[in-house]
Structures
1.
Amino acid sequence: MRVVSHRRGGAVICAMVLVAALVSVRAEAAGFVAREDGVDIQSGVVRMRVTAITDDMLRVRIAPSGDFGEDASWAVRSDWRTRSVKVSVAQAARQPGTVECRTANLIMRIQLEPLSLIVSDLAGHEITADSPLGAITTEGAGFSLRKILSESEHFFGLGDKVGRLDHRGQTFTNWNTDAYGFGESSDPLYKSIPFFVAAGGPAGSYGIFLDNTWRTWFDFGKRDPHTLAFGSTAGPIDYYVIYGPSTRHVIERYTDLTGKPPLPPLWELGFQQSRYSYMSADEVRSVARRLRSERIPTDVIWLDIDYQSHNRPFTTNPRTFPDMPALVSDLSRQDLRLVAITDLHIPRLLNQGYAPYETGVAGDHFVKRPDGSTYIGEVWPGPSAFPEFTRSVTRTWWGEQYRGFINAGIAGFWNDMNEPAVFNSPGKTMPLDNVHRIAEQGFTERAASHEEIHNIYGMLNTRATFEGMQRLRPDERPFVMTRASAAGGQRYAVTWTGDNSSTWNHLKLAITQMLNLGMSGFAYSGADVGGFEGTPSPDLLTKWIEVAAFTPIFRVHSANDSPHREPWLDGAEHTNIRRKFIEARYRLMPYLYALADENARTGVPLMRPLFYEFPESIESQCDAPTSFLLGAQLLIAPPPNFESPAAYPVCFPAGEWFDYWTGGKVVRSGPKAQTLTVTPALDRLPVFVRAGAILPQQPLVQSTAQIPHGVLSLDIYPGDECRGVIYADDGHSMAFLNQGYLRQVVRCSASRTGIVVNFDAREGQYRPWWQQIEIRVHQWNGTADARLDGHTVAAHAVPRSDTLSVRIDDPHGPSTLSISVR
Ligand code: GLC
């Protein structure tokens, strides 16, 4: 039974009838048709369809001319687009001309004329409301949507945007751009992710995702401080409202919709050394030797374009890189892997035996001009063709190009220049009237202009690479890094922030870029450590390494016309500091890997702004421009102005905090945010641990390929909600999908008489590298009695660090360790 209502001339007639489809409504009429999972609205010629995907997520489609067009998406997973829940519909009793429907968590109130939508929580707090000034305007194929911007709201996400972390008061355009030399106010940049999270509003956090591939734009109150506006130059009006009220929930839902990043190979979390370019296999070998002799823990060395013959993708220079499999095996003996660049432009080499071009032509795999000829643009290798990634057969052909490199043992691939970048051309990309020929499941086979496809082209490039790697090496987790991407691209590739510069300001920008990328689904991002372009001072490179040690992707990279950046090049003092931070990263690997596991299941980013875990810090402005959280437990607090030697305040959200480096308690309990003044020093990066954290750590290794010698340690920082997670698997295969993993939650509760540590039941069947666990309770004075499941175990006080250490055999199942004050 559904409710149908038609309004004519101001009178509302409401009837209960069975409806199979939208009843035809005379143009100019206004009315609604209730569906099981939403409501269809007609307002003049305009149609709107609201569908409850879940109880906290709505899809809104608006057809200004009455025709919704094709229902297909490159970003949203088809299983989520077709999902829906029941809504109850009621005509709003007191307000004629409105219709109200509800899910278990949301109320939608729709006014029929002029058309407007208000979404509230069940308590009636407005989550998002269309602007009374008019919700929708169209101009040609383009549209603008306007919503009320509440005074307390702050905006995040939108991918790799630069500037302040909070987008309020700013406007942005999404148009994938080779933004070489970008600066603080550059826009657009490399990626297009038309999704934002709004936090701090009356109903908590919510997000809006505009599922539109064209040139989209967002205005967070710049033109009018009371209006949030967004739109596109063309394409469908198709957006999702995702309700929190926590930011965490918004991102979980957004990544339900657009996909979670896959669990990475463990080595992705290691230190990575790159350069444009290491010019020969011998140079790579000598960098590898030096990394090992300097004892700089490292997992990966990267090959930039000069390993190729004449910059031609999928070739190698026979003189400088004569034997790739031999290079791979030499490096693997040193526990190092190779990642190689494979750009997407395919040079037009006629009758020269260059298979990528010849098979590409034979299979009709290249993008066309409107006259049907193949489009040719100039890039690194010279005049080149561009694969038609909107065709699934072309993506399969592209994936096949990796066979040789996969057979040679190359571990991962780097997809660059995929905005796509084209030299000497207007807008530095291909002509917008180039013709794509979509042939893809779920889409109508049709021609599409490059203007429509441009923003997703890079993502489809990475999808082809990722899926190709899956086919060629089905038992290994693929690693792809990309420069350009789009909403949903986190399913296929990690990303980096492109061609940044060697300045202190760029170090600061990188932090906000990575935080906003994390809130846009891209949990794995990095910035070229030291800056790509220019010359970092030794201090800048050192500080950048310190900070990057706590960010998801940790890769040093530099331009070919800038000095080398290998960690040892600035003398022993700098090398020692850099090594110390890289080592800290490797000791924290179990913590990082547990975050990766959490991310793969939930989409929650590794690197988080403070308000993510402590929503009240938005109000207290505790989110300093450079401070961030790694997971829920670690607070990294670099100086807000890196150049300044002046002491600065670190703001701590409410609660107690410990110094990660000393284990000492630095902030005592308090209901409000507190500050601590810190003096910057070259060899110091303030890192703090939240009370209640249980941090898993491991003995130092020189690569994640090495099995740690010794025990897994669990550092306990007593406090409320005391919790930690242990996660382990083989680090590279897909066996984790089939019980080949170990996940165990550890909890603790402290009292005046001691502390009880509970190991929950273990999930999965994986046998880890450790046989014993060392529990280190911080801020423990004196000795103690310890019992594991009733049996006495030895406890040692470490007075120097006020720590109590208890070593136990690895608890395979649920266990309880009771430690009491003696
Ligand atoms: C682009 C990339 C850069 C790379 C260079 C050569 O500029 O952004 O990282 O080193 O191309 O491939």
2.
Amino acid sequence: MPGSNPRFLEKAQTLPVDEVFLDLEDAVAPLAKEDARANIVAALREGDWTGKTRVVRVNGLTTQWTYRDVIEVVEGAGEFLDAVMLPKVQDPTEVVWLDTLLTQIEKTMGFEVGRIGIEAQIENARGLVNADAIAGSSRRLETLVFGPADFMASVNMRTLVVGEQPPGYTEGDAYHYILMRLLMAARMHDLQVIDGPYLQIKDVEGFRRVAARSAALGFDGKWVLHPLQVDAANEVFSPSQEDYDHAELILEAYEYYTTVEKRGAVMLGDEMIDEASRKMALVVAAKGRAAGLARTKTFTP
Ligand code: GLV
Ligand code: MG
């Protein structure tokens, strides 16, 4: 949500989303940046963000705005903020800079040191090549975020439609390498990994198609730019009822067979399950529980 638009900052509080980020970067015009900082501080302090992770995206380190963004927002509303998003990260030292600044502000203000997290957007070739080092650069780092619009511009990908396959690329998925690369860097350091925006906001089916690809690989979520995209995102990133039931059944059956019958590889219907199946089932079950799904099947030995 652009920090320059107080109406949107109100609206954001009513949406069924897991996280809201209030933007000072590319959704805010240069002349509106200073007012946007004050709007964001007020919205964080006065708004009702219950159930949502509260994040502010500051400007990137090649601009003149970053330090004031961080200082004004965190001094003004640090107790009401969960993480700072740093865009266009190219190098681990950028994250270290933000970590150090946050620590100084937390000490000055008497806040708990280290509570505020960092999300790093990877948006160009240098950031992607350095993704492993960036992912390991700070204990505050929680999430790597793909920035497809800036990324496509930076590598000269020949399309203007963010997230869609570039015309002429007829086989495979032009984003596969990038998404996989980010997924590996994030998981190597136990971070979340989030897919970026889909700009054709009226084309919900297009959003769903693009979101399904990163969800299938294992991404934890995707940005939404408009209320129209929210339901589709929640749906795509939650397991289906069938998969959720299946996962809970695997967990229950595996528990029964390994403890009561003391067997490690067993049959559940027509499929063989073992310790690795349990791990896969844990991921799906955790996502289903987080999405509020209820079981419709129970295990009987
Ligand atoms: C998001 O910041 C993007 O560049 O896609
Ligand atoms: Mg960007």
